Amino acid sequence: MIKPSILSGMMELLPQDQILFNEIKDTIEETFKKYGFLPLDTPVMEKQEILFAKGGGETSKQVYAFEKGSSKIGLRYDLTVPLARYVSQYFSDINFPFRRYHIAKVYRGERNQRGRYREFYQCDIDIVGHEKLSLYNDAEIPAAMSEVFTKLGFSNFKFLFNNRKLLNGFFESIGLDDFIFTLRTIDKLDKIGEDNVKNEFIDYGLDSKVIDKLLDFIATKGTNDEIIEYLEGLNISNELFQEGLKELKFVYENMKALGVKEENIQIQLSITRGLDYYTGSVYETILTGYESIGSVCSGGRYENLAENYTKQKLPGVGMSIGLTRLFYQLNESNLLKESSAHITDCLIIPMKGYENNGIELLTELRKDDKMVQIYLEGGKLKKQFGYADKLNVPYTIIIGEEEVKSKTYSLRNMITGEQVSCSYDDLIKYL
Amino acid sequence: MIKPSILSGMMELLPQDQILFNEIKDTIEETFKKYGFLPLDTPVMEKQEILFAKGGGETSKQVYAFEKGSSKIGLRYDLTVPLARYVSQYFSDINFPFRRYHIAKVYRGERNQRGRYREFYQCDIDIVGHEKLSLYNDAEIPAAMSEVFTKLGFSNFKFLFNNRKLLNGFFESIGLDDFIFTLRTIDKLDKIGEDNVKNEFIDYGLDSKVIDKLLDFIATKGTNDEIIEYLEGLNISNELFQEGLKELKFVYENMKALGVKEENIQIQLSITRGLDYYTGSVYETILTGYESIGSVCSGGRYENLAENYTKQKLPGVGMSIGLTRLFYQLNESNLLKESSAHITDCLIIPMKGYENNGIELLTELRKDDKMVQIYLEGGKLKKQFGYADKLNVPYTIIIGEEEVKSKTYSLRNMITGEQVSCSYDDLIKYL
């Protein structure tokens, strides 16, 4: 006999939690569809040459890679590489701008840590253009995500929002030409603190005045309008900076026009999105009061999605929710709804000898599209109600001699314990 | 540059087909939920010791197996092994009888053939009891599947239905004690034909009279009532045969009581489900007129689901749809709906300079829960309508100077080409 267990780093839920998880996943999907994103479903297994096209690095060590026959196979580690491969492969069949959503599992053989998973769901939306893509889309993506979070019941989310051109332009204007080093170091602020960041810049040979300017800049606080006013007041003539500022303002205005509330937007100049391929807008999302959870939804604008697979220039913008981690964190922070999650609205419990009457009722109710099941395993009433309790089923119907004679049904509200005798039409109304 | 391509044996669809595929998948899931099956989502990767607990055989050669660090990993090749592992692992948390559905991808490194996939969706429902499980469930499972096929628009499906006890009892009654050999040989009938099957039995040393009895038996044709009458008329006193006959009749009656139409049920004594672990009811499902597609939904009753992982006796009954293969076959047989599949109901096309008016309307319509998107990439009207056409979007709304002045919208029916000028309230009615 083999002890039943799973590999570490996998999330596996009991049905009650799985129902909640699926409700969140369904809400996300419904909203993506409402916003006109098309569904995509690519293989979990990709050719290694596709996954590794970008070259080595941290991610490639995490890939589950193996061979079968003559195939060199890897499990996808995100949904962006498959998207890049897909739009290149089916380029001539695709209607650009291509809006696609993809909700699926990805795999990373990371070091095992609490709240980090090796198999997890990503929920991505991207809009990919051919040659060019309007800046409106940089507002459309967070607008869709805003509706997702609102529908999920989080009124306290905040899009932290910045622009890479603005950042790089500012760096240039104070004489910092090594954007990569600067972005990488700023990105460490939350992890190692201001003093250590300062020291890293000093070690790099930066003048302390420049460092102060930089740290002042990215620490700028205020309302969105105050920050924009501050940025305009800097009177930096650097072209990249001015372009970034124009983009930032345009996207900010259009996010609001598309229904994102002012209170859910925060321009924050310290957001860089590390070393990724982002070239313009960058976003992170926090739940106010639960900042320690980290970003629950991130993304940005990129100039060229698929340069490893095609000569076509494919700019785009997208955001991604790490659903598995989000679910874990919500659970840890007691932010999940008290679990009254259930699939079945009503359980029919026929007395011994009245099974056929129960089945008859069941079949009628299902024809009327009710979510009903029947308990036909026999046993004592206590056991039967125990099954109903564990199902979280809101109603039970008892059928026995009395009910069949009087052509009524005993409907019990499992939450209040109240029991009423009613006709079929009444049943339909209740359920 | 790497040529964008995927591994062979994977189904990957263009958005139009993906929408259709997802519609089918959603219908299946909604029906499973309606029938009170609970959702399960287990890791795609299982420990090799779990997957190989049963010992070697054909299947184990097909498993995608590999190591990472010290972990021996395999991709699941069905959803039954994960179910067995799951109910063993969480036994004390599970509410029996446990009704679960699982719609997910499984992996088999099969030889590459047309219509056979190495990654494919299975859609499983099972009801698993502890110690015992009422025979009613053998009717409940096909009842749920009957609603699935009906909702999918197949009125011409037929459950081919048999009972293993009945078969084994009959074999015993004519002196055939090697059930495994007999079942295996019968199972080849469709593939190698009656003459070859006869020869195999002769080679095995069977008397030709016995072979004729056997082949006559399994070739029995007739209505369900005629076949039951025939079985009763055989007057076979064998206990197993009688038990099987009783079960067959009971399940048949209760399938009808649960709403399965007589025309969708066919008792067929040649159905054996090969060498699987089935012990009672066995089912296959064909689409009448498309028998060559093969069974699109199969399953049966098993006495002990998880003996490799637990001492608990867990009998169950289940059926499974091979969705990827079904989709492929429906497509090949032109049984998929003419593709008017779309996600978005309406595309707003603002004239140059009227983008903000377009966004305003878009935001209003989305607040009213309409599935709308906007085209803001500029360019000529022809290009914009080209985008709308490829989206299959039923309506477009044009906004320009005239519309803004007169506070109306030009709504164009993209199928009829008809265009009307209307108010916002009218828009809501149309969409």
What does this structure look like?
The structure is a homodimer of 431-residue chains. The first copy, chain A, is α+β, with helices and mostly antiparallel strands. The first copy, chain A, has a domain of 85 residues: Rossmann fold (3-Layer(aba) Sandwich). Helix content of chain A is 41%, strand content 21%. Chain A contains 16 helices and 16 strands. An eight-stranded mixed β-sheet of chain A has the order 1-5-6-11-10-9-7-8. A five-stranded mixed β-sheet of chain A has the order 13-12-14-15-16. In chain A, strands 2-4-3 form a three-stranded antiparallel β-sheet. In chain A, a hairpin with a 2-residue loop joins strand 3 and strand 4. In chain A, helix 6 packs antiparallel against helix 11 and helix 8 runs antiparallel to helix 9. The model of chain A has no long low-confidence stretch (mean pLDDT 93). At the A-B interface, helix 1, strand 1, strand 2, strand 3 and helix 4 of A face helix 1, strand 1, strand 2, strand 3 and helix 4 of B.
The oligomeric status of these chains comes to homodimer
CATH class label of the domain at 346-430 in chain A: Alpha Beta
> Which percent range fits the helix content of chain A?
40-55%
N- and C-termini, Cα separation of chain A: 45 Å
The strands making up the biggest β-sheet of chain A line up spatially as 1-5-6-11-10-9-7-8
Low-confidence stretches of chain A: none
Largest sheet of chain A: 8 strands, mixed
Q: Name the chain pair whose interface involves the most residues.
A: A-B, 93 and 93 residues
How would you sum up the global shape of chain A?
Answer: elongated
Total number of helical segments of chain A? 16
